[in-house]
Structures are given as structure tokens and as C-alpha cells.
UniProtKB/TrEMBL annotation:
This is Protein JTB. The chain crosses the membrane at residues 16-37, 109-130. GO terms for biological process: mitotic cytokinesis. Interacts with AURKA, AURKB, BIRC5 and INCENP. May be a component of the CPC at least composed of BIRC5/survivin, CDCA8/borealin, INCENP and AURKB/Aurora-B. Keywords: Cell cycle, Cell division, Cytoplasm, Cytoskeleton, Membrane, Mitochondrion, Mitosis, Signal, Transmembrane, Transmembrane helix. It is a single-pass type I membrane protein. It is found in: Cytoplasm, Cytoskeleton, Microtubule organizing center, Centrosome; Cytoplasm, Cytoskeleton, Spindle; Membrane; Mitochondrion. InterPro entries: JTB. It comes from the Eukaryota. It comes from Denticeps clupeoides (denticle herring). Required for normal cytokinesis during mitosis. Plays a role in the regulation of cell proliferation. May be a component of the chromosomal passenger complex (CPC), a complex that acts as a key regulator of mitosis. The CPC complex has essential functions at the centromere in ensuring correct chromosome alignment and segregation and is required for chromatin-induced microtubule stabilization and spindle assembly. Increases AURKB activity. Inhibits apoptosis induced by TGFB1. Overexpression induces swelling of mitochondria and reduces mitochondrial membrane potential. Belongs to the JTB family. The gene is jtb.
């Protein structure tokens, strides 16, 4: 007689359930945290007038540069990424600062991510090797006990 349960018994083990709960908890925290942060940023970001670079075409006057400690506090554009570029709007002839992402910053973040992935790969490879050794030892112990019982 077959069970109507579609979930395998291995998925109901406490360790697997805890790992699933942890995973989905982190995913939901990431999603809801991002939405909360965007709400906070949008409420803080609402200036009295929209920047000219959002409504009209512009020319980049100075390339993306890192903000100094003073500029980080003085310019709101610096607070988002830590880099800013000066732009000139074509229709209104206004000069404004726009937050930007530096190629150097992107490269640094890329290598940081690669290092983290390499580290995680090594950790999980070691876990797999340890688990395999443990299972091999259990299997050989079981075979030894079976031979002794004969």
C-alpha cells in the first residue's frame, strides 16, 4: 500500500527542515529588507525638485571620482555609492552632481565576490570530503559487524 505523501521522508528530517527554514528565512529577509531600505531611501531622497539629468539630456563634465569625506557629508549624491560625477544639463544649462558607479569599485566588488565564492567552495568541498569519510567509515563498520556476527 503506497502512501499519498509526495514529500520524501529524507525531507522531513529535522536537519533538512532547519536548513530549509534558514534558507527561506534569509531569502525573505533579503527581499523584505531591500524593500524596506528602498522605502527609507525614497522617503529621504525626495528633493523639492527632480534633478535635471532625470528629465533632460546631459553631458558628463567630469568623470566618476571618489567623494572625499567632506563631499560625502555635503552632497547627497555621494552618499549612495561614494562616487560622483559632475554633469551639465543641455536644456537648462545647470550643473549638478550625479551618483555613479566607478569601474575601480566594480572591479573591487567583483574580486570580493570571487574570493567569497572561492572560500565557500573550499568550505563546502571540505564538508563533502568529511561527510564522505564519515559515511565510508560507517559502511566499513557495518560490514565488519556483519562479518563478526557470522
Amino acid at each position: 500500500m503506497e502512501s499519498d505523501c509526495r514529500i520524501p521522508v529524507t525531507c522531513l528530517r529535522p536537519r533538512v527542515l532547519v536548513l530549509h527554514a534558514l534558507f527561506w528565512g534569509l531569502v525573505s529577509l533579503r527581499v523584505f529588507g531591500a524593500s524596506l531600505l528602498s522605502d527609507v531611501k525614497s522617503s529621504v531622497m525626495k528633493p523639492s525638485a527632480t534633478p535635471c539629468w532625470q528629465t533632460e539630456e546631459f553631458i558628463v563634465a567630469s568623470e566618476c571620482t571618489q567623494c572625499s569625506a567632506f563631499w560625502t557629508k555635503a552632497q547627497t549624491a555621494c552618499s549612495y555609492t561614494g562616487y560622483v560625477e559632475q554633469i551639465n544639463c543641455t536644456k537648462s544649462n545647470r550643473e549638478e552632481f550625479k551618483s555613479c558607479r566607478s569601474a575601480l569599485m566594480e572591479e573591487h566588488l567583483f574580486w570580493k565576490f570571487e574570493g567569497a565564492m572561492l572560500g565557500l567552495t573550499m568550505v563546502f568541498a571540505l564538508l563533502v570530503v568529511a561527510r564522505q569519510r564519515s559515511l565510508d567509515q560507517q559502511a566499513s563498520e557495518k560490514v565488519r559487524r556483519q562479518i563478526e556476527s557470522i
